[in-house]
Protein 1
Amino acid sequence: MKKMLVVVAAAAGLLAASATSHAAAPSKIVVGGKPVQLVDPLVVDKGRILVPLRALADSLGASTTWNQAAKTATVRKWSETSTLIPGKNTAYSVKANQTHKVTLDASVKLVHNRVYVPLRFLARLYGYRVAASGDTAFVNSPLTASEQDTLYKGELAKARQFAMDKGSKNAHYAIKPIPYSHEREGFETAYFFPIGEANRFFLITDDTVSFYEVKDDFFVVTWQARIPVGQKDTDQLFMDGKVTDAAGIKPEIKREFFFYRTSGLVTSTNITAGKIDPDGKTAVTGVKRIVGDEVKEASGSLALALPGEVRAEATKE
């Protein structure tokens, strides 16, 4: 799935290409352990490895289109797009409703009516890791082996900590994200993990709730909605499904959640953890209140797992 944008990254770290005729492209690319079938060969241009874009789309789970009138190529993965112009060393990437100009280490080229791009480009956008051995470039998961062990098989609290640290910062959007709005005073961030799980969760950020899932080692947002402003009981509204502007398909999770919430106003921060049942009934297991740099209140446990809670995810799905 992720393989398409990856490839672009693959060969970049592979060779320190000098701009001489001695630079040679790898003859094989392996993505996620599977060889990529290349109809057209890789090429070297001024010491940089270029790869045929369209040939890689299927194996990478992305698609490409060519706009003959505009003379541009567009790559699509999840809800994200990147537009490239042959002859230019810049691309325009659209993610989470924001457009970014990306400078490439080589210009996009048309070779026998095929669009070629530098291998590093897609890896840079999506975070794949690249390695090389002999004549083969390997495109690997964005997660290291130890990170995979933690996320899929590790202790529940540690897996949740990893998901909280990495999820929202590195998320991709399967759907077009709804515009962010901040209409409440202060701030609030709350994670809702299904009991026993770490690889999927709801994240409430102020007035927006998002559902994250780990797909092929990427954190992907597959559903979003707004929680009405002016209501005090955000949890109850969320549990009752009283949301607006929903996008995507909301998962039906008929069980309790572990929650971890951080909220604050000016110099005051409140942290709470606990359990919430499908009817919205909450049992708090830990509280901490901080004013400035001073802890004013601390009771119970803020551990990222409930007492006696065990993982429901035995293996990577």
Note: The helical segments are 3-10, 53-60, 120-126, 145-153, 156-166, 234-240.
Protein 2
Amino acid sequence: MQTQKVIVFDLDFTLWDCGGVWIDCSQPPFVQRERRIVDSRGAYMRLYDDVPRILAYCKENQYHCALASRTTEPDWAKTLLGLLDIDHYFHQQQIFPGSKVAHFKALKKAFGCEYQDMLFFDDEMRNIEEVSRLGVTAVHVPEGLNWTLFRESLI
């Protein structure tokens, strides 16, 4: 029996752009204004264009999805996940400051899988390198996640 892949996503500059800064550099509260989510500076908090399609694809194909984010403001990230209506796509959310290794150890335990059964997307090369050393397939997304890169990584 083949093990189901666990697909893990970073947040900042991988799934979303928080007005050109990381979530912990934004200025809550976040509010919906004219069908957009903005912070108190008026900075636009948005998902990258292909992210809704990617998350829907994962759900339709019954992939286990998780988040691994090193933010120092996990509550802000969780609030934004809810406002963007994507929090329900993730079976696990490891959102706390520190090394991504800690995130992946927790995910390995929670899913009962091996590191080689995980696929990880992140915009920061230091995280890609760190997680790759565990045996995770890590994909660098320097300009945010898009459909083409996602589909190529599943192969």
Note: The beta strands are 6-9, 16-18, 31-33, 36-38, 44-47, 64-69, 92-95, 118-122, 137-140.
Protein 3
Amino acid sequence: MTEKADYLEGQTRGNNLVVDGIPEAQNESWKETEDKVRYVINEKLHLDSSQMVIERAHRTGNPSGYSGKRGLSLVKFLRYKDKMAVLRKTKDLKGTNIYVNEDYTEAVRQKHKELIPAMKAARERGDIAYIRHDKLIVHPTAQKQEDTKSTNSQELEPRAGSRD
């Protein structure tokens, strides 16, 4: 039952994104939060948010109690393709202290925490590594693949003085 409940919860979060780093105003309304999210989409991600339908945008967690604190915003898009358009452009946020992530269930977030050390170790070895949903994906770099191929092909060549 727990797995089924986690699956259903994950499905309900399918069009959601969590935006971290947008300054929060005291007693900020849902409309103000949505306007700030739309500003980030338009100005920082260079997308047209007027074509995106945001069902809801609100702050999560405890209210900051003072203006200017950077808080988490939960954004629910009507269309999955709008969510994915925003996610594809998040590289444009580099250096802004604004971060956009998918809204995962607590079980998936816990799995991420467990996989992060293995992902960092793979990256230190020079592999391309990332976490997708609740799985660690590791791809050897092109240089490592070429080194492996050249080593394997050298082993297959006959040695000098050997009879074939």
Note: The helical segments are 2-12, 30-44, 80-88, 106-124, 142-156.
